[in-house]
Amino acid sequence: MAHRRSITARWQAIAIAAMASMATLAGSVVPRPVEAATAADVARLDTPDRQQRLEQGARAEGQVVLYTSLVVQQAAEPIQAAFERKYPFVKLEFFRANSAHIVQRVLAENRAGANRSDIVIAGAGPALARTGFVQPFASPVLAAYPKDHLGPDGSYAATRFSYQGIGYNTRLVKPDEAPQTYQDLLDSRWRGKMVWSNSQETGAPFFITQIRQIMGEDKAHDYLTALSRQNIATQSASIRSVLDQVIAGEYAIGISMALHHIAISQARGAPVGGTMPDPVMARAEDIVLLKAAPHPYAAMLLVDFVLSKDGQKVFADAHYFPAHPGVPPLPEMQAFTPHDHGKAESIVDDDVLDRERARSTELFRQLFQ
Asked: Domain of 350: which CATH number?
């Protein structure tokens, strides 16, 4: 009997402990189990516990992979550091290449059923959206963005803009004499004094594609024919390197120069100025969520972060023009923000550049080489 009473007492003690434990759990929030999910399941979450669910899922995933054309030290690494500070339980890995290479890699991986990337940040939003591999998404931070900063049905969103204009050496060209319009480049005083890059993405072919878009084919051909008589030097180098040649005084004027490069050099005391012919040639760099994203919860945290004011400030601090209307560029950049100076923008995405590249390259060879 004593042995039986001992067993009974032991089970009573266990039952009391279990009841106490249940009472403790009843007074707290029990986390929802992490469910296996696809990007489609996560991309449009719109519940009160959205942030909690994203973080819980991201903790289980522990990783997010970004393919980007952002310059590594200037922007990709600062974004990585800022995101990991905010979400230390997620490791952000990135692969850096130009936009065309990224598109090719994404297509190859998806067709092979071996997708590694979750997010793309590059000038490739429209091109990727047409592949069927993109997952439209929704985010609370998008309410602050104008509709023309967003792709159809939430297929992508602009992260930053890149503007190109005319750069000039201030020791060789007075600011009040610098070309202000595309027509000003035809002035005979600049013959033999101008340079541009032959870069397919940002140099002469880009400029020619933009001129064709701005003026139409017939007027563009007449304009480019006249411009070809200006004996423009062509360099097989990046537009940054070509601007450095202008700063060094090797040329008076650089055509199709990145305005943020000019602003950065000005801030460092370089003898360089810039003008923005209207409309200003522009490119958008978008963020895209891939349908086959291996880490959808962490991917949506990254989308939210990049498009938030905190994420956009990282872009601003990197001397970029952020897309968020509530995040101004750095003071030294504001002289080259088109909409702040009443200038229109001519935005050409990489899909248009790809489609028109052959024709623009042909015109470049016929007229300028």
From this structure: 3.40.190.10
Q: Counting Cβ atoms within 10 Å, is residue 107 exposed (0-12), middle (13-18) or buried (19+)?
A: middle
pTM, two decimals, is 0.81
Cα Dmax for the chain: 116
168 shares its domain with 94: no
List the single range of 28-32, 36-40, 297-301 with lowest mean pLDDT. Answer: 28-32
Residues 184 and 150 occupy one common structural domain? no
Tell whether 112 is covered by a domain.
yes
Phi, psi of 287 (to 5 degrees): -110, 135
Rounded CA-CA distance 339/332 in Å is: 16
Do residue 48 and residue 121 come from a single domain? Answer: yes
Judged against a pLDDT cut of 60, whether residue 8 lies above it is answered with no
Q: What are phi and psi of 328, to 5 degrees?
A: -75, 155
- At 19, list the tokens: 């009841």
Unique residue bearing structure tokens 């007027």: 219
Claim to verify: residue 90 and residue 135 sit in the same structural domain: yes
Residue 121's SS3 state is strand
Task: Show the domain range for 228.
Answer: 163-282+338-368
Query: Measured between alpha carbons, how far is 84 from 91 in angstroms, rounded to an integer?
Result: 7
Number of domains in the chain: 2
Give the span between the Cα atoms of 366 and 164, in whole angstroms. Answer: 24
Residue 333 lies in a domain: no
Tell whether 22 is covered by a domain. Answer: no
Looking at the fold, whether 234 and 364 belong to one and the same domain comes out as yes
Residue 360 CA to residue 80 CA, distance in Å, equals 36
Q: Average pLDDT in the 208-227 region?
A: 97
Phi, psi of 233 (to 5 degrees): -75, 140
The model's pLDDT over 49-108, given as tens digits with 9 standing for 90+, comes to: 999 999 999 999 999 999 999 989 999 999 999 999 999 999 999 999 988 899 999 999
The dihedral region occupied by 255, where left means phi > 0, alpha psi between -120 and 50, and beta the remainder, is beta
**330 occurs within a structural domain:** no
Give me the DSSP letters along 313-340.
HHHHHTT-EES-TTSPPPGGGGGG-GGG
Q: 327: left (phi > 0), else alpha (psi -120 to 50), else beta?
A: beta
